[in-house]
Design goal:
2 copies of one chain form a homodimer. Chain A is of the alpha/beta class. The first copy, chain A, contains 12 helices and 9 strands. The first copy, chain A, has 2 domains: 173 residues, NAD(P)-binding Rossmann-like Domain (Rossmann fold), CATH 3.40.50.720; 111 residues, 6-phosphogluconate dehydrogenase C-terminal like domain (6-phosphogluconate dehydrogenase C-terminal fold). In chain A, the strands form 2 sheets. Chain A has a 6-stranded parallel sheet. A 3-stranded mixed sheet of chain A has the order 7-8-9, covered by helices on one side. In chain A, helix 4 packs parallel to helix 5 and helix 7 crosses helix 11. The longest helix of chain A is centred in the middle third of the chain and has 27 residues.
Chain lengths: 289, 289
């Protein structure tokens, strides 16, 4: 049971976390803090939060658990705002899509309180956002990665894990470096690739003809290009090193395919496509079973 | 009313076309021809076709309408097989995903019968294939492009259009060059981009860790990597020129994004992502309304 949960950013992720824990009766009072007054008032009206905090520093003063569910670029300032009033024994966790940079920001700001920060990342993206999109079932069956620090007390990590487990999420632990490497490849790069295609076509003077014949394949491929620009700007910059590596590898692969087409190498193309198709069939099968 | 429809390739597309027309009572007899005996027998058993043709040449002898629904790489041989026995007055149309190369193959093989070929392309892809996947509603609300030839009789083009309209498809006409340019961008390139990512990750020794944390964004982005390797090999080669151009443009766009990340240009990244997002919102809105 949490007496006082403080959610920084009462949007899709923060709001859904609060709702899931409320539904299980695991939290007594939720305070929301954030930049957008209208969103906080909506969150209050919808029962996502129980009160609006005047400031981060004020809100965390009596917190047991703090969830930072804001774009990763806003994390450094947040840690600086909460360090002075964060009580001993309170746990801070986050929902940032990158981990090495968030941890670096936490280390820089939290000083001797660094052990109270348990880094996390729920994988439950959606193109919707704001408190109005939050719902208690968002994390059910979804992965949540924790990247614990050497300074964390094991019981604090277990407590954060148990909260996500209460949201029916599948919790895994890994190093922050592994996290950032894996998500650069399976999440950050595909977002860039979808943004790139959408923006490329949109900038053409005759974009109407392209969009009017785009079908379901295009729709699914570009779904993540509907994601939040500020959030993805932050992710791209925060996971810069791993993402540049993935971009280079991906461009190389596209150049390989380009070379096969230019050389009219039908066997090479078919083999590459067949490897891709088989991998996807295996993946989907593994997910379903 | 068609007395005798011959479907070359009684798979998802050919089979669904036959079923849709049967459902409307617009066809008396459907003959299926194809490479896969098992698929043809399944099509017969499911009532997708009414008989199996011994050969293309035999089947088209009494045809009113012939639909070629096979990979575009197989079209040249098909046209050579049907030219001698194709009766005057019969119409041949196709479902090929590229048009300039199919038309070139038709011109090379059909000689004075070229006017009987009305090129077409239904946009109703799916990762499923074979007669078992065919259903009468596949084309409802989906675009079908016709790229008529100067040699076509207007009434023949109208007749093909009316058949697709009977499938509740939205029929449009454009030049074959416009068709290939547009589909290189909105269909062929995204397929290559999805195949590329899937194959790249699959080839890594530690691919398991990547796939185990891939989420819904990855799932949708890579859905079209489940498409048929042979079909897409043919498309990539058939639409070579337009596709190489699109690949170059896309790689340039990825390099632009790479440059923005490397330069830590947050404003530039956010602006590009915002343009992409807005374009997608507009597109989805336009599709829905």
């Amino acid at each position: 049971m949490i007496d006082h949960l403080v959610v920084i950013g009462a949007g899709l992720i923060g709001g859904s976390f609060a709702l899931a824990l409320k539904r299980k009766g695991l939290v007594k009072h939720v305070t929301g803090v954030g930049r957008g007054r209208a969103n906080l008032e909506l969150a209050l009206k919808l029962g996502v939060i129980d009160s609006i905090g005047a400031s981060v520093g004020e809100a965390v003063r009596s917190a047991d658990v703090v969830l930072a569910a804001i774009p990763v670029g806003a994390m450094p300032a947040l840690f600086r705002e909460l360090v002075d009033t964060l009580p001993a024994g309170a746990i801070v966790t986050d929902a940032g899509s990158t981990k090495q940079d968030v941890i670096a920001a936490a280390r820089a700001a939290l000083g001797s309180k660094i052990g109270q920060f348990v880094p996390g990342h729920p994988i439950a993206g959606a193109e919707t956002n704001g408190a109005g999109a939050a719902h208690a079932h968002l994390f059910e069956g979804k992965p949540v990665i924790l990247t614990p620090l050497a300074e964390n007390r094991p019981e604090d990590v277990d407590r954060v894990e148990s909260l996500w487990s209460a949201c029916i999420a599948r919790v895994a632990r890994m190093s922050e470096a592994d996290h950032d490497r894996v998500f650069a490849a399976v999440s950050h790069l595909p977002h860039l690739a979808a943004f790139a295609l959408m923006e490329e076509l949109a900038e053409r003077p005759d974009h109407d003809i392209y969009f009017s014949f785009a079908g379901s394949g295009f729709r699914d491929f570009t779904r993540i290009a509907g994601s939040h620009p500020e959030m993805w700007r932050d992710i791209a910059l925060a996971n810069r090193v791993a993402l540049l590596g993935e971009l280079d590898t991906y461009i190389d692969k596209l150049e390989t395919i380009r070379g096969l087409i230019e050389a009219s190498d039908g066997m090479g193309l078919e083999a590459l496509f067949a490897r891709a198709r088989q991998a996807r069939l295996n993946w989907i099968k593994g997910k379903v079973s």
